[in-house]
Design goal:
The structure holds 2 protein chains of 2 kinds.
Chain A lengths: L3 H7 L2 H8 L11 E8 L4 E10 L2 E10 L2 H14 L4 H15 L27 H15 L5 E3 L1
Chain B lengths: L2 H5 L8 E2 L2 E2 L1 E2 L10 H14 L9 H21 L7 E4 L2 H16 L5 E4 L9 H10 L2 E4 L10 H7 L4 E7 L11 H10 L3 E5 L11 H4 L3 E5 L10 E5 L1 H6 L10 E4 L4 E3 L13 H17 L1 H19 L5 E4 L7 E6 L4 H10 L2 E2 L1 E3 L4 H7 L4 E5 L6 H19 L4
Parallel strand pairs in B: 3-15, 5-6, 5-7, 7-8, 8-9
Antiparallel strand pairs in B: 1-2, 4-10, 9-10, 11-12, 13-14, 14-17, 16-17
Helix pairs in contact in B: 2-10, 3-10, 4-5, 11-14, 12-14
Classes of the chains: A alpha+beta, B alpha/beta.
Chain lengths: 151, 407
């Protein structure tokens, strides 16, 4: 394929691994925060479930349908924010947003781990929204907008 | 029909995308434009840009002639009885909204039914949902057969004396289904209902005769038929348009204006408030000239060949699912096992191949198909069998690329 190398910057091995074996996929039990988020232009949708105790995200899971980028990003995001304070999680979301816009970002403040594999998405502008879907859901949930508490 | 010669008339096709020659397979979203259209619009702006319908000066007359001349070209192209029945709009969406807002609000009440099909584009669903909410009328959906076609028996059984409006796509933008508008219209008329036809996917590709179809309203867009964006058409029967109130009010559409009341111009101008899309209409007229030079029969035959070839070739891709009937317009909607359509479209794009991925503004249809999204390749007069070969090869490579992920 003529442009394999270019594609490989998008579809990194670690991304495909998260796509194939998503972490934290499923439903949380107990009292959780549910946030639904769609990408109306393409039909991707995820439902993020967060358990917030003492201002800390003690658990995070998601269910949804979408492409490799949106689902792998959701998988990575839930891993990254688990155990973080609400403030830290929102801060990470900002850093991720900077990364997606191709700007310089602070890569030392947190251990971003697998998330940095998503950097290649910046070269595919049409796919940035896929990568940010789960993070936007998390922001929406933690900002306290349209959240509904369920048991 | 010499496709090579036709391709030479589309400057955009002669470029490389991501290192490969562009293979443009997204004409159902928007078509490319021939020189003739680009030049006609440039000529207007360079030589006779002026407002229409009121200039005593020479340029004003030239602009009015260009604008009204385009209306006559549209009339002749769809064989409308009169150019007065051709209303310029922003596109199909605005055309349908005009009918739903003006005709719908005035003629619907509680107990009435609006009949739709499950294969409608959002632009032929939501205006009716809104009209139903405003008037208390009910929406009623025709059943659809397994292969994505309608059965006339179902149409007969669904349309009742309560049905006031039947809104249906001439050609489905996802399935490629060609709906029997003439028969549906006959059945609607038997019950005193009117038909509103979304012709966005038919007018660019086949000879359409609104008198033969006998439909009451027919909507389409310029940009899907070689013309510019921002211009479309609402055809309506004179007796219906005459009785309808305008939707937009202001300049251009008035007869007399007093401090407390005003009267409207006749059709079609009463529906064209504000300075119209003059260059757009002239561009659409040029697109019609282009299509007529090629010949709609030739375009239809060429596309039928492409559609059949695409169905045949794409079946070679392991794990492919193709949606829609065998006899179809020139588009193929599909999914490949284990590859999300976005991912497929990204891999194809890396090869210079442009296809659409998503729900194609037809979420209810996606639900009917039981998929979240699909990929679609759509063809036009300038596409070739080589384009379809490139797509097939691209999809086989896509399968290989993602192959080991789920192995």
């Amino acid at each position: 394929m003529s442009s394999h190398s270019n594609l490989d910057t998008l579809y990194r091995q670690v991304i495909m691994d998260h796509y194939k074996n998503p972490r934290n996929k499923g439903d949380l039990e107990g009292e959780t925060l549910h946030v639904n988020m769609n990408n109306p232009t393409c039909g991707d949708r995820i439902q993020l479930q967060l358990k917030v105790e003492d201002d800390t995200i003690s658990d995070a899971k998601f269910v949804g349908e979408g492409c490799s980028i949106s689902l792998s990003s959701a998988s990575m995001m839930t891993e990254a924010v688990k155990g973080r304070s609400v403030e830290e999680a929102l801060d990470m979301s900002n850093i991720f947003s900077e990364m997606m816009q191709g700007r310089d970002y602070d890569d030392e403040k947190y251990d971003l781990g697998d998330i940095e594999a998503l950097q290649g998405v910046t070269k595919f502008p049409a796919r940035i929204k896929c990568a940010t879907l789960a993070w936007k859901a998390m922001e929406k949930g933690l900002d306290g907008e349209e959240q509904d508490e369920t048991n | 029909m010499d496709v090579k010669e036709i391709r030479n008339q589309f400057p955009i096709l002669h470029q490389e995308v991501n290192g490969s020659p562009l293979v443009y397979l997204d004409s159902a979203a928007t078509s490319q434009k021939p020189y003739k259209v680009i030049e006609a619009m440039e000529d207007y702006y360079r030589r006779y840009n002026s407002n229409v319908h009121r200039g005593v000066h020479t340029l004003g007359s030239l602009a009015t002639d260009g604008y009204e001349g385009a209306r006559e070209k549209v009339r002749s192209f769809i064989h409308a009885p009169s150019a007065r029945e051709v209303v310029f709009t922003r596109g199909t969406t605005t055309a349908i909204n005009t009918v739903a807002y003006s005709y719908g609000r005035a003629n619907l009440q509680e107990g009435d039914e609006i009949v739709l099909t499950p294969m409608e584009h959002h632009s032929n669903i939501i205006p009716w949902q809104q009209a139903a909410k405003a008037t208390g009328a009910a929406l009623k959906y025709l059943p659809m057969k397994e292969d994505g076609t309608l059965s006339l028996e179902d149409v007969q059984n669904t349309i009742t004396s309560n049905t006031k409006i039947v809104a249906v796509a001439h050609v489905s933008n996802v399935l490629g289904t060609i709906n029997p508008i003439k028969e549906i219209t006959r059945m609607a008329h038997e019950h005193g209902a009117v038909t509103v036809v979304d012709g966005a996917q038919s007018v660019p590709h086949m000879k359409v005769d609104v008198q033969e179809l006998d439909c009451d309203f027919f909507a389409f867009s310029g940009h899907k038929m070689g013309g510019p964006t921002g211009i479309g058409v609402l055809y309506g029967k004179k007796k219906l348009l005459d009785k309808m109130e305008p939707v937009e009010f202001g300049g251009e559409m008035i007869d007399f204006v007093d401090l407390y009341d005003s009267t409207w111009k006749d059709i079609p101008w009463k529906f064209e408030g504000g300075t119209p899309v003059i260059a757009g209409a002239i561009g659409l007229g040029a697109a019609i000239d282009f299509l007529e030079d090629v010949g709609m029969e030739n375009i239809e035959a060429h596309e039928a060949e492409l559609a059949a070839y695409a169905l045949e070739r794409l079946k070679e891709v392991e794990g492919i699912h193709i949606y829609g009937p065998q006899k179809r317009a020139a588009l193929v909607t599909f999914n490949v096992d284990d590859v999300h359509p976005h991912d497929a479209a990204t891999v194809l794009d890396a090869e210079g191949i442009a296809v659409r991925a998503g729900h194609h503004c037809a979420q209810p249809l996606m639900k009917w198909l039981d998929v979240v999204a699909t990929a679609r390749a759509s063809f036009y007069v300038y596409n070739t069998k080589e384009d379809i070969d490139a797509l097939t090869d691209g999809l086989i490579k896509t399968k290989e690329y993602f192959g080991d992920v789920f192995a």
